[in-house]
Amino acid sequence: MSPESRSQAIAAAVILLGAALVIYFLPTIVLWIGNFSPTLAIVVGVCLIMAFFAVFWLRARYQRGRGK
Predict the structure, then answer these.
(1) Which residue, 2, 6, 21, 46, is the most exposed by fewest CB within 10 angstroms?
(2) CA dihedral over 22, 24, 52, 32, signed as positive or negative
(3) Using CA atoms, how far apart are residues 15 and 23, in angstroms rounded to an integer?
(4) Which parts of the chain span the membrane according to its record (predicted)?
(5) Can you tell me the distance from the alpha carbon of 6 to that of 48, in angstroms, rounded to the nearest whole number?
(6) Which pLDDT belongs to residue 68?
């Protein structure tokens, strides 16, 4: 395994681990925020889910910018 592919594998593992933790705790977070404001809970839930896709979108843009 080349150093570059190893780095990419570690980055993907960290991103997926972080996303798994957020998704695991998402119901608890949304219900806690929902005690204060149901609308805010919806907004926070949507933002946390969209952040998962935004990370991969930003990473793809970065890779394209580097010419890979």
Answers:
(1) 2
(2) negative
(3) 12
(4) 12-33, 39-58
(5) 28
(6) 60
